Amino acid sequence: MTDADDVRRLALTLPHVVEIDSDGFDFRVADKGFVWSYPERVPGKPRVIRTDVAVLYVGDEAEKQALLLGEPERFFTTPAYDGLPLVMLRLERVDVDRLRELVTDAWRMRAPDELAADLPGPG
């Protein structure tokens, strides 16, 4: 079980990460978002920033569908994200190791090659 503090701690361990001021959390590398709080939109109501749900960049539609179909208890999407390589993650349903993997993978996909080389390990 993880929360917004875990997202923040993990994201800030990655090289060249900037946290954008927001009502929740919003992390970028090279001006590209890789993980942020879910801005839930309900018709007729003001947008609500959900810090219990992280939006993650996943790279492509195939990976998005694999996560949605393979782990529906953890991942979901909405029509507003159709066609975008993004999934929403229910933080209370993931452990720290899995969250670290997801946040790091999102960072790797958004970081330019010259910055990605600063992260030790595979990739």
TrEMBL record:
Xref: InterPro entries: YjbR/MT2646/Rv2570-like (IPR058532)
Pfam families given in the database record: YjbR
Protein name: MmcQ/YjbR family DNA-binding protein
